[in-house]
Structures are given as structure tokens and as C-alpha cells.
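hey so i finally got around to running the thing on that chain from the lab meeting. sorry it took forever, my laptop kept dying and i had to restart like 3 times. anyway pasting the input first so we r on the same page abt which one it is
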Amino acid sequence: MSDMPLRTLVLAGTAESRAVIHALSDEPSVQLTASLAGATPNPAGLPVPTRVGGFGGPEGLAEYCRENGVGLVIDATHPFARQITRNARAAAASLNIPCLRLERPPWHPEEGDDWRSFDSWQEMADAIPPGERVFLAGGTQSIGIFTKRQDITLWARALNVEGMEGPANTTFINAMPQLDKADERATFETHGITLLCCKNSGGNASFAKISAARDLGIPVWMLRRHVPEAGSDGDNSTENYHIHDTIDGAVAATLRIAANAVSGWPG
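ok and heres what got predicted. didnt touch it at all, straight out
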């Protein structure tokens, strides 16, 4: 068994990734490097070396791992960051190293919730009745689809929309999700929002808007997640790829892999 720590690349940018990094940062069997896509301005600092920017597809990610002796990739990116997740899995497979995916569970409705799920932004936008006052929290890729609806009033919140131009019925809000339910509720009440459209992101970081809509009786329409490509905790996994739905599960799996670094994936 090697005495060297397992060089581990964490594809980060979420609250869950920060939790994993903090849990493993002092583990002598693991040497962490974090990677951020660079989409979020002024991200919170991390207690490990951190790189910012893309890799150039799965080949670029594989080359980075090869050049830096990475023996494990932890993909803790956003549930809807599907391209980097595909790249991580492909890169790890090409190098025959393990890849762990931390896939936080989606939100589920409670009794009394008026929720609908859609497979695409286009399907969602097409279903909106005329006259609705819509709050869109779906990121920049969704905005162009919804601004084509001239018969609704739209508030679109996302990063990097400062100065964006659109039709007169659209207001752009350049911001992250608010963490306080009271703040989200005030936003909805101020604008008379009648429909919330968003991703089913799961987790706590952006749940305040869902909770505020619940309190106000506002219907919530969500973009449905794609089905994960491998089994989650408790199901069959592929040889070098496994999806975990808890931080503790991802941390424990990392430590198992580190303890068996010579033989690779511990099974």
C-alpha cells in the first residue's frame, strides 16, 4: 500500500462540494485540489489549492488529471451541470481511475403544494397561461425562451444578466438566489408574482424561494432532472463510477478509495 496521499480533484462550486472539501481537507490520506468553473463572482474561499476555469472537454480534464497524478475525481457540481458531469465520468474512465458523483436529492412536494414538472424549458414556457406574472429562476440559458412570451410579465433572475436587454414586459435581476425566505417572499409580494419557474435543484442553498412560494400559495413549475447514469447509494454501481446522495457517503467512499489506493476502486 502506498504511503502517498491520494491526489483527488474535486469539481466544486456547490454547498455540498464545500462540505466535502472541509471534511477531507485535514485527512492525511487525501490531497485535495478544488476546481471552480468561474461562473460565480467572488466565490467563497476554500481551504485547499483551487483552480478556476474549464478544462477543455473530457480530453482536457483527462490530461489535467494525468499531468497532476490525480487518482480520484469527485464530481460535486450542480445537478443540472450535466456536461461537466459527463466529462468527469468520461475522463476518469479513460484513465481507469474512480469517479464519485455527489448528486443531492431533488425537492419533493408537500401536501397542499401546487407543483408541476417539465422536461424542457420550452415545454414549461409554452404551458404558461396568458397574463401570468412569472418569476424565472432558471439561469441564463432559460431566459431567451421565456422572453418570447409577450403575453406574460416576466422577472428573470440569474447571474451575469447585468445590462441584458429584452422586451418591455421583462425585468432582469442580476443576483444569486436569496438565502432568507422572508427576502424571497418580499420579492414575490412586491411584484405580485403568480408563478415561479425554476430547476429542481434540491439542497438548501436555493430553497428559500420554494418555501416562500409555498407560504404564499404560488404554483411552482420545475425543470425535471435527467435520470442519473448510474445507481445511487444502495443500488448497483459501475466498476469505477458511483453516485452518492449524501455528503457523508461521498466522504466515506473517498476514504475507502484512499485506503486502497494501490488497487484502485475498493468495491
